[in-house]
Design a protein that fits this description.
Layout lengths: L6 H8 L7 E2 L19 E3 L4 H14 L3 E4 L18 E4 L6 E5 L4 E5 L4 H10 L16 H6 L7 H4 L6 E7 L5 E4 L12 H5 L8 E8 L6 E9 L2 H15 L3 E8 H10 L13 E9 L5 H14 L3 E6 L3 H21 L6 E3 L5 H15 L2 E8 L4 E8 L12 H14 L15 H7 L2 H14 L15
Parallel strand pairs: 2-4, 3-4
Antiparallel strand pairs: 1-2, 5-6, 6-9, 7-8, 7-9, 10-12, 10-13, 11-12, 11-15, 14-16, 15-16
Keywords: FAD, Flavoprotein
Pfam family, one: FAD-oxidase_C
Protein name: FAD/FMN-containing dehydrogenase
Length: 471
């Protein structure tokens, strides 16, 4: 049983730390972007060093007080806000944002967990390198949260998830001990891989305080094209042709439905759209090529091949880096258009590539039987991750559909599960999907997860109720 972070506990904690370490939580500490969850906390701790984090965790372990780690607060599944149970202590690493080391010849950067993703990208760029994790929230999300949730983004097809970009971690474990795993090694077969255990654990097994991250050399030339495709099956055929032509040089392959572009036209009429009449389905193909290769020529050849095969009906190839940026701005603004319309239910799902076309058809038909709904299906087609979001019919509000929200999500997730997919592709489980994980998760895997949690965090102080239901 956990105890609250009450006045007596906080007063004792304040005597043990420098002034300003404890503060009143601000609104951004207690809210999440979709407004589905509100958090509560006795205080927010703002440590400056890993040693201070360790002392905070030790104090909470001794007093049996829950800890909720918070990064940039951009997570979409409620993992950073705790609305029920004894008041926890929030721990924010926003003061721990230094670059501890940069090794261009090794393609490695060492950063503290509170570093904002965009700042890490900028530090890499200043050294002639690139940190290839790109997210819509990169201006505010923090590296610790990116790793804790195993963030994905738009370049997973080429570079992998956050997990694939991490070489080593420094972290504070639930007993207050410090895991000194901040190595720059590509190979280290010395026992259990605790790094990958902590990545994706959403703060339930410890607090990541610093990371050793992989950098890459920027491509010599980059380019993009928007291509109107017949349907998702045609898009997947085109992806295969692009990879056959260019192999790993395809950086991104994003699918967009017309509904998302229509939402942008409705909510942001000043945003310039590339097509006078938006296609029903569009793909954004992005390339990063070697020296001597011409992105526009490669994309025009792909367009011609797709046109001849009946996969593509129209297209625009970027003629400059500025136009490429404009294409990406359209894709990355779709979530904001969604937010302004107001979704009934949003689903972050992944599917085997061969199941995507059938899922899109079956899910659309199943939802039509539930009621009058609009669906915006878009996302990272290259790695099978779709954002399948459901919206009210024109003229109606999402509140009108509240009685149907659970049925809509169950419908979508049942179809995903039947197709061998995942109900969480890149956002994690948080608190929003705990029941869904229990419903769809493999029993043996869940039992192993609970055993690991009990072994490392026997008192259940680390992010109580996230990923696994609190005891």
């Amino acid at each position: 049983m956990l105890n609250p972070a009450d006045d007596a506990f906080l007063a004792g904690l304040a005597r043990r730390f420098p002034p300003g370490t404890l503060a009143q939580p601000q609104p951004h500490h207690l809210t999440e972007p979709r407004g589905r969850h509100l958090g509560r906390a006795g205080a927010v701790a703002l440590p400056r060093t890993t040693e201070e984090v360790a002392r905070l965790v030790s104090a909470c372990a001794e007093a049996r007080v829950g800890i909720v780690p918070i990064g940039g607060g951009t997570g979409l599944v409620g993992g950073q806000v705790m609305g029920e149970g004894p008041l926890p202590l929030l721990v924010s690493l926003e003061r721990m944002s230094r670059v501890r080391g940069l090794f261009p010849s090794e393609n490695v950067i060492l950063v503290e967990a509170g570093a904002i993703l965009a700042d890490v990208q900028a530090a890499a760029e200043a050294a002639g390198r690139m940190f290839p994790l790109w997210l819509a929230s990169e201006g505010s999300c923090r590296i610790g949260g990116n790793l804790a949730c195993n963030a994905g983004g738009t370049a997973v097809l080429r570079y992998g998830n956050a997990r694939d970009l991490c070489l080593g971690l420094e972290a504070v474990l639930p007993d207050g001990s410090i895991l000194h795993g901040l190595k720059r090694l590509r190979k280290d077969n010395t026992g259990y891989d605790l790094r990958n255990l902590l990545i994706g654990a959403e703060g339930t097994l410890g607090i990541i305080t610093a990371a050793s991250l992989k950098l890459v050399r920027p491509p010599a030339a980059e380019g993009a094209a928007l291509l109107a495709v017949r349907d998702p099956a045609a898009a997947l055929d085109l992806l295969g042709r692009a990879q056959r032509r260019l192999g790993p040089l395809v950086t991104g392959f994003e699918l967009m439905h017309r509904q998302g572009l229509d939402f942008l036209a409705e909510t942001m009429p000043g945003l310039r759209q590339p097509f006078a009449e938006p296609p029903v389905w569009t793909v954004l193909v992005d390339l990063g090529l070697a020296e001597g290769m011409d992105p526009a020529a490669e994309l025009e050849a792909l367009f011609a091949e797709g046109l001849e095969a009946g996969l593509v009906s129209d297209g625009i190839v970027a003629q400059s880096l500025a136009q490429r940026a404009d294409f990406w701005a359209i894709r990355e603004t779709i979530p904001e258009g969604n937010r302004r319309i107001g979704s009934i239910a949003s689903h972050d799902i992944s599917l085997p590539l061969g199941e995507i076309a059938r899922f899109v058809e079956e899910a659309g038909a199943a939802l039509a039987r539930i009621g009058s709904l609009r669906v915006n299906c878009f996302g990272h087609l290259g790695d099978g991750n779709l954002h399948y979001n459901v919206f009210p019919a024109p003229g109606r509000r999402r509140e009108d559909y509240e009685p149907l929200r659970a049925e809509i999500t169950r419908c979508v997730h049942d179809l995903v599960h039947a197709a061998g997919g995942s109900i969480s592709a890149e956002h994690g489980i948080g608190r929003l999907k705990v029941a869904e994980l229990e419903r769809y998760g493999d029993p043996a895997r869940l039992a192993a997860m609970r055993a690991i949690k009990a072994a490392l965090d026997p008192h259940g102080i680390m992010n109580p109720g996230a990923v696994l239901r609190a005891a």
